[in-house]
Amino acid sequence: MTVAVYLPLLLPVLVALAARLTADRARPRAAVPGLVAAAIFSAAATIWSLLLLFLTLFDDLPAMIDLDSRTGMHLPEPVPDWVAVSALVLLVVALIRLERDVHLRRTTAHRLRNAGPAAGGVVVADWSEPLAVAVPGRPGEILLTTGMLRVLDANERRAVLAHERAHLAHGHHRAVLLAGAAAAVNPLLRPARDAIAYLVERWADEEAATGVGDRDLVARAVARAALATAGHPAPAPALGMHGGVIVRRVRALHSPPPASARWQLALLAGVTAVCLLLEATATADFVDVLRAWLAG
Amino acid sequence: MADDEAGRRRARGELESEVMAALWAAGEPLTPAGVQTALGDGLAYNTVQTILTRLLEKDLVRRGPADSGRGHAYWPAQDAASLAATRMRAALDERPDRRAVLQQFAAGLGEDDAETLRALLAEREP
């Protein structure tokens, strides 16, 4: 086995880099699909690499050891056993984390769905904590607390509703779910996950700005809602990009809408291609090893 | 109706949710004219009236005589919203890590950020 099997485990560093470069430069609706695809590809590559490494333990099966000693020929040992065993451990941990993350996101949406009767897809909860949440489903719902409604004026409320409707219309929960799953598999993808979470907010901000026809209005709604939440016990922010996210969103809305950024997206495509290439090489290596074993 | 352009542009559901939001934000019963003012975007009186009637049928608002003695005033139904709040809190308290996976409109503000935001708001004050 060559280095090709290990490299995909580190590729997420490139995805994270691409995420950082795209975050405030590309149009969110162009950057999100690219980033999600790159994250998913590199997470899948991580799993495949770990699986290949683990499968090299094949030669330690009793039958193979038997064969080895009987024929007196030395079967190839492509990677040290401890590496293969570590790969197995990492693989199991990755799959457990993956299951947990997806389960958490699914049950959260499930528990929040049908919280009450909806008016035009909006459920109002009488709760002083300012919250506005898009709950995916068929149809999706927007949950708004009275705490949120009372800190905003009519136009700002319209901006928030437009923002949340954009989340639902474009299935942003799916992008976030996939990004979370990818980061659960390979923790190096966490910056990419956070960038995707940030970019779907930006996407919804941009769409709301187009909808209400006023960028400043959306910026004001974001800022005032965030300031209102500041007085409440802060939930651990989902974004590893920490609190600066809100400021970045407001600043982005105060600037002209971003243009497309072709080369950053090309970088993502490049990462995905490298991923595929390395995995193909690693797989070919593994097949060679397998042939050697079976021939012996 | 000529002055109902805003109404025609936006879908029925959107208007329902906006009226609902306005009633909650007001914190007191509103007449249809009051709702019209609160929404502040040139919706026709009849449109507002129609939406209020629909919300009444859905049991999302309550209606009583207006303070002025003429017509009706509307306020949001408390029970539905309290129930929604109870369910929401239960879901979030059951597993504290749920908050982290919620796509919240605006959350996670640091101390310095609050200052920066206030400055940004002041800068653009109309």
From TrEMBL, chain A:
Keywords: Hydrolase, Membrane, Metal-binding, Metalloprotease, Protease, Transmembrane, Transmembrane helix, Zinc. The keyword Ribosomal protein does not apply. CDD domains: M56_BlaR1_MecR1_like (cd07326). The lineage of its organism: Bacteria, Bacillati, Actinomycetota, Actinomycetes, Micromonosporales. Its cofactor is Zn(2+). This is M56 family metallopeptidase. It comes from the Bacteria. Signal peptide: none annotated. The chain crosses the membrane at residues 6-23, 35-58, 78-96. It comes from Paractinoplanes globisporus. Residues 123-178 form the Peptidase M48 domain. Binds 1 zinc ion per subunit. InterPro entries: Beta-lactam_resp_regulator, Peptidase_M48. Belongs to the peptidase M48 family.
UniProtKB/TrEMBL annotation, chain B:
The keyword Protein transport does not apply. Keywords: DNA-binding, Transcription, Transcription regulation. The keyword DNA-binding applies. Gene3D superfamilies: Winged helix-like DNA-binding domain superfamily/Winged helix DNA-binding domain (1.10.10.10). Pfam families: Penicillinase_R. Belongs to the BlaI transcriptional regulatory family. This is BlaI/MecI/CopY family transcriptional regulator. It comes from Paractinoplanes globisporus. The lineage of its organism: Bacteria, Bacillati, Actinomycetota, Actinomycetes, Micromonosporales.
